[in-house]
Amino acid sequence: MLNLTPKTHINRSGVLINPCKTCQPVGALFAALGVHNCMPYSHGSQGCVSYHRTYLSRHFKEPAIACTSSFTEGACVFGGGPNIRQGVKTVFEVYNPDIIAVHTTCLSETIGDDLKTYIDEMEIPEDKLVVHCNTPSYVGSHVTGFGNMMAGFIKYLANKGKTTETVAVFPGFVNPGDVREYKHMVDLMKLKYIMFPDCSNVMDAPMTGEYKMYPDGGTTVEEIRSLGACRKVLALGRLTSEEPATQLKRKCGVDFSLLPLPIGLADTDAFVMAMASLNGGDVDPLIDEERGRLLDLMLDANPYFYGKKVAVYGDPDTVLGMARFCLELGMIPKYVLTGTPGETFVKLATAMFKEYGKEEECKAFAAKDLFDLHQFIKEEPVDLLLGNSHGKQIAKAEDIPLVRAGFPVLDRYGHGSQPIVGYRGAFFLATKIADALMDKYDRTCADEDMELVM
Ligand code: SF4
What predicted TM-score, i.e. pTM, was given to this entire model? Predict the structure, then answer.
């Protein structure tokens, strides 16, 4: 079908084709899954939560639990108050979580359900908690929903207290493998920290033969409460983590450093330096070693990276990080595209192109879809696609290698556990990029040009 994608752009405003984002509640649900003993709860109809759960399960290859207010016609007309009162009661009785994290959907937002009032007025068992956030899906994307849910937890739970030595790390919209990599680095920097939310050991819980509705991982409620006493927040992912970091500053006065996702060399350096500013400047030699190994690979494989044009697409922070890494590798991120709306993305990307003197060659787009990307590629082709699974039809139609990274990867296994952040994550990503480019060369070169040693 995509072979028929026309080259010529026409102005479209009413329809997205092959969108490069999904809806806010997907991110809210994912953030809530990163809280220990928490049941995510969708205030809307069953179809919404069924889609959100499926989407996350297909990416992580793990169950993504959630309950719903199960709206029918009555709730659509009269509001979902009775549904959520009954729903919360049932969830505590049947599934016994410590906390329920409610997010809204298009329908409950359009009706105008006042979740704060419902929650304030409902009977909640002693020692149990209910928090909420608003996630109207006609605004933003799953990335916005992720930040909104984090802000919701903070609004309800974080307490201002006597400042401790602990640092909070907001991971951004990343995989469990990335969270593990952060932990590895923060541990090496000898900082006491709270990771919030923490999807590791939840969305990549090991197979033990026993199903746990609430896996061992996740940030505890106690930890979320004590975020208000942290000395600093390292908010990773400028477009994802700003909202919750601002919320914590507003409520509890905790300062934050807003950093890019540490993908590639410079952005990981920024993360390490931010940590070093909190531990007296001590950088563990193992971190230097990991950095050195990455540099070595970048130099060794440079002839295969240099000058190659790439289309990078997906979630805004991930795309900005991967695009910068492409520039560090000597590649040209020709098209840098996200489906998430927001001009900040375009501004940050354009400033980055300027830093590397590539502003003429590279273009950034927000609120675009993959049909647009395909048309750009038809106008001027690229050597590589770097992004989520939704680009696979373009890859097939145009015979361009695709390196899967970011969210979602629906058609391959193990990606959730493989980091792309930190020096080691960048090492894995660079290896995959080099493999893809060299595989294509091997497949398409003349027999006499085929080399055993490359
Ligand atoms: S109706 Fe709204 S919340 Fe529900 S699945 Fe569709 S976009 Fe998402």
Answer: 0.96
